[in-house]
């Protein structure tokens, strides 16, 4: 079975070094021919709101590329609700986990993902 990776970011978008690296790892894996997807959890779900407020943010081109390439697979429905960004995520066509559930690491592992948490 080919190896695939789930990059799960819990990072608040204001932490540029960490959120930037989450995207860099995602693209590096992809650019090296590996399957990789990004999952937004915790404060990471706030990225849509943060980029709306600051569209010139250094993260914006990385986010846009990930969205364009369909690499953001899921955002945490529980966290999106807690951080009041659920509607914005829903409009972005990023899948939400069920409202009272976080991204399921167990499910990802069962699906063959190796989980990388940033």
Strand numbers in spatial order across the main sheet? 3-2-1-4
> Which range does the strand content fall in?
15-25%
What are the segments in which pLDDT stays under 50 over at least 5 consecutive residues?
none
Principal-axis shape equals globular
How would a textbook summarize the main sheet?
Answer: 4 strands, parallel
**Arithmetic mean of pLDDT:** 94
Query: Can you count the helices?
Result: 6
Q: List the domain count as a whole number.
A: 1
User: From the alpha-carbon coordinates, what is the Rg to the nearest angstrom?
Assistant: 13 Å
> What string gives the helices and strands in order?
EHEHHEHHHE
Task: Tell me the helix content.
Answer: 40-55%
State the fourth-level CATH superfamily.
DsrEFH-like
The count of β-strands is 4
CATH topology, what is it called?
Hypothetical Protein Ychn, Chain: A
CATH-defined architecture: 3-Layer(aba) Sandwich
- Assembly form of the protein: single chain
Assign the structural class, choosing from mainly alpha, mainly beta, alpha/beta, alpha+beta, or little secondary structure: alpha/beta
Report the CATH C-level class. Answer: Alpha Beta
Q: What distance lies between the first and last C-alpha atoms, to the nearest angstrom? A: 25 Å
């Amino acid at each position: 079975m080919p190896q695939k990776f789930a990059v799960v970011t819990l990072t608040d978008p204001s932490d540029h070094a960490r959120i930037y690296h989450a995207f860099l790892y995602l693209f590096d894996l992809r650019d090296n021919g590996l399957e990789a997807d990004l999952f937004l959890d915790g404060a990471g779900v706030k990225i849509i709101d943060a980029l709306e407020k600051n569209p010139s943010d250094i993260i914006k081109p990385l986010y846009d590329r990930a969205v364009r390439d369909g690499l953001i697979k899921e955002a945490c429905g529980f966290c999106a609700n807690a951080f009041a960004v659920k509607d914005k995520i829903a409009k972005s066509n990023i899948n939400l986990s069920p409202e009272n559930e976080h991204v399921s690491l167990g499910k990802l592992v069962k699906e063959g993902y190796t989980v990388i948490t940033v």
